[in-house]
Design brief:
The chain is built from 16 helices and 2 strands. It is an all-alpha fold. The chain has a two-stranded antiparallel ribbon with strand order 1-2. A hairpin with a 3-residue loop joins strand 1 and strand 2. Helix 1 packs parallel to helix 3 and helix 9 packs across helix 12.
């Protein structure tokens, strides 16, 4: 299972460290993938703003992770089960003389950095078309510090985090720490910033469908590093995670398109892309502990449910611009809870110690543990994101003016146009 401290990576594990470095590069590619995926779905006059929010997340989170984030998530506990000690500039991984860096530890630190980056980038889709870039950067820096870094300790630090070490929650690659975390924060910000001008169903169509499909393709490609890389080793569990990362989103695409056909009469390419991402979200926490058959079933269920769930924003009255709630929060919840029903138990390692699902162990205990992990992260992220967003909105202002929204975020905030076509 995923190792939890730099000390767990022996120098002899060169192949495993190499795989981590490759997987980290794949996961980092996913954030530009998010930029394309989101960028194609917004208005043409908002595409630069949308993509800049992802690249801004790469910038601010990358610096903060190296500065102190790694220590808060994986350092020696200063609050047992909840928070680690800041490790300034990864100093503990650089060797006493600064010249003998820890290969395995730095590979692991780099891999986990990419998770922090993409989690922040995912939130941006909920506030598309109406957020100030400067305010977004302030939010990203504060939120990743007080929410993501502690939650990463809770979930990914197998040695001491309360979710795996106390409750034996299985979240292999971030169903709670990444997707539920981002989805809950996105919901909070959507409520803080309010609805776009003229908010209603069908108010705007994706301006560049091929751009969105390219983003979905990059996400799926990178997700193999996201899930299989989380084993931190080249072994059978990594291979199982890889197969499930193929099977679940493929099935979710089918599930989404079936619902779309029944509901709207036509299957769409945007639906196919959204279905694939939904399946990727759902399989993320469970890819190490489901048989491929149950991974396919999970994909079908998640794709169908999330295809229905994205319309809840119109009934409940919140403007989640690009369905971060419907895909990441709902999909993450489904995948995390699915483990408690269908997860199998014959994997050696800490992640399945004390594990007993309803199907394989006849117990509701694991389902209960999964629920505590999922809803605990969701509530924590929502409350903190709402507080941070509200303070920013009431001080420096988070949302742009209505007239600037109508004119276009790109020209008002960035002074650029996504498609500057010269006329003769």
């Amino acid at each position: 299972m995923l190792l939890h401290t730099a000390a767990d990576y022996a120098p002899a594990g060169t192949v495993n460290s190499l795989w981590l470095l490759v997987a980290a590069a794949l996961v980092l590619l996913m954030t530009p993938g998010v930029a394309f995926f989101y960028g194609g779905m917004v208005r043409a006059k908002s595409v630069i703003s949308m993509m800049m929010m992802s690249f801004g997340a790469m910038a601010i989170v990358g610096v903060l992770w190296v500065f102190y984030g790694y220590g808060l998530a994986f350092g020696k506990p200063i609050i047992p089960h909840f928070l680690g000690a800041p490790d300034w500039f990864l100093s503990s991984l650089m060797g006493k003389d600064g010249m003998t860096p820890d290969l395995g530890g730095l590979a692991f630190a780099g891999f986990q950095a990419t998770f922090a980056i993409i989690t922040v980038a995912l939130i941006s889709g909920a506030i598309a078309d109406r957020a100030k870039f400067g305010a977004w950067m302030v939010f990203a820096g504060i939120w990743v510090t007080v929410v993501y870094f502690p939650v990463a300790y809770w979930v990914f630090n197998l040695a001491d985090g309360w979710a795996p070490a106390v409750l034996h929650v299985n979240d292999f690659a971030g169903g709670t720490a990444v997707h539920i975390n981002a989805g809950a924060a996105g919901l909070a910000l959507a409520l803080v910033l309010g609805k776009r001008v003229g908010f209603q169903k069908g108010m705007s169509k994706p301006h560049n469908v091929p751009l969105t499909l390219l983003g979905a393709a990059l996400l799926w490609f990178g997700w193999f590093g996201f899930n299989a890389g989380s084993e931190a080793a080249v072994d059978g569990v990594a291979a199982l995670a890889w197969i499930n990362t193929l099977a679940a989103p493929a099935a979710a695409t089918i599930g989404w398109l079936i619902v779309e056909k029944l509901k709207d009469g036509k299957p769409t390419s945007i639906g196919a892309a959204s279905g694939a991402v939904t399946g990727l979200v759902a399989i993320t926490p469970a890819c190490n502990i489901l048989t491929p058959g149950f991974a396919i079933l999970l994909g079908l269920v998640a794709g169908a449910v999330c295809a229905i769930a994205i319309d809840l924003k119109f009934k409940l009255g919140f403007d989640d611009s690009l369905d971060v709630v419907g895909i990441h929060l709902i999909g993450g919840l489904i995948g995390t809870l699915w483990i408690g029903v269908f997860g199998f138990t014959h994997i050696d390692g800490d992640a399945t110690k004390g594990f007993s699902s309803l199907l394989y162990g006849g117990s509701f205990l694991q389902l209960g543990a999964q629920a505590v992990g999922a809803f605990g992260v969701m509530i924590y992220s929502f409350v903190l994101a709402w507080i941070i967003g509200t303070v920013i909105q009431r001080t420096m202002g988070f949302r742009i003016k209505n007239e600037d929204e109508l004119a276009g975020v790109d020209t008002v905030v960035h002074g650029e146009e996504g498609y500057a076509l010269e006329t003769v």
